[in-house]
Design a protein that fits this description.
This protein is α+β, with helices and mostly antiparallel strands. It contains three helices and three strands; from the N terminus they run βαββαα. Helix content is 45%, strand content 14%. The chain has a three-stranded mixed beta sheet with strand order 1-3-2, sandwiched between helices. Strand 2 and strand 3 form a beta hairpin. The model has no long low-confidence stretch (mean pLDDT 88).
Length: 136
């Protein structure tokens, strides 16, 4: 058996995703119409209130192979600090529901901290993206 000499021209390796655990499919809705559209796509049930007591809410749905989370926060009328605090609060709820979903009863402190950090960062980035689009 002879070995062919392969051309290495243009061949490069790519670094792959380094996540050990993939969290839930996650989105952010900053308006009620956004939430109602997402809910209708994910459930046949009547929609729940999109936010609780005028602040924020986390809604979970079962996906084909994962948990889907729709985080809702009223996008206007609050300071940046209030928004960051509400998003961090809701990120903890996302983490709690996800730990339950994967059956993790005693995650390490660092695992919890990195999970909440990642969820918070993703939600804050999405919030910033949506607010930028609203201001254009």
């Amino acid at each position: 058996m002879t070995r062919r000499k392969l051309s290495m021209r243009g061949l490069k390796n790519h670094w792959l995703n380094h996540a050990v655990v993939f969290g839930p499919k996650l989105t952010l809705c900053t308006t009620e119409p956004m939430f109602l559209k997402q809910h209708a796509a994910l459930s046949k049930e009547p929609p729940p209130h999109w936010i609780h007591e005028g602040h924020a809410a986390v809604h979970t749905y079962d996906g084909e192979s994962n948990m889907i989370v729709v985080t809702c926060i009223e996008g206007t009328g609050r300071s940046g600090i209030e928004i960051a605090a509400l998003i961090a609060h809701e990120a903890v709820h996302v983490k709690q529901r996800f730990m339950s979903f994967i059956g993790e009863k005693e995650p390490s402190d660092e695992f919890e901290a990195y999970t909440v950090q990642n969820i918070t960062q993703n939600l804050l980035e999405e919030y910033a993206r949506q607010m930028k689009l609203l201001s254009v």
